[in-house]
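Appendix B, record 7
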Amino acid sequence: MHHFWSSWTISDAERPYVAALAQALPLVLDEHVVCVYVGGSFIRREVVVGSDLDLYVLVDTNDALEPLIAKTEGLIINGIPVQVHLYSIDELEHQRHVVENKTNRRMPPAVLLRELKHYALLYGTPIDLSKHELMTDDDYLRKFLPVLRRRIADDWGKNDAERLRFIAKQIFFLVHHEMKLRGELFDFSRNKLLSRFEAEQQHILHLCDAMRKDPHAHVRRKEDFLLQVSTYLDDVEKEFMPL
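Structure tokens (predicted):
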């Protein structure tokens, strides 16, 4: 295991997550695992009570995906939800999913490759990004927007708080990308984004932040939330993806 956090001054909020990493890794590893990365709020040092721990696992064969997805689905360690996102070498090489599993919320392989530079290696040999064609900013929008639209369509008739929370979290990534296209360059951080729009209380991020923090309390606002998200996606598409 690579102790990438060894140079950190570990906060009280981070300490349980360090312990959870040590316990999660043996549960994930088998003879097919090539490497494991850590992403999400832990690597950004923004964890709070209730934050997920995001692991990105690469396996050597497509056949290894479904058993590991089943094994790690719903994993919780000491009260910390551990999201295990699984990919095969073949999926990264061809940049498409082999196994579709709606409960295992995997970003498209091309998006993973684009974001990997922001993650930390926990185990194994790092992925050589020079061997992969990385998507452009335009490609990112063209892949990301349809994924979000499908998720909204799937969730419209459901009262699943965690699915709404997932959408809210993705909007933060989209707003960050929008800022990048506008020339505002900074590493992804929810705190930085919220500070950037602190004076604009009607911005979609504030609604998403409330949904992300306590989705159960806001399920009753589901339709309003999804409508506002859909409107925001329309605005982004019109401005940055004109016909």
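Remarks on this record: The first helix runs from residue 15 to 28. DSSP finds eleven helices and five strands in the chain.
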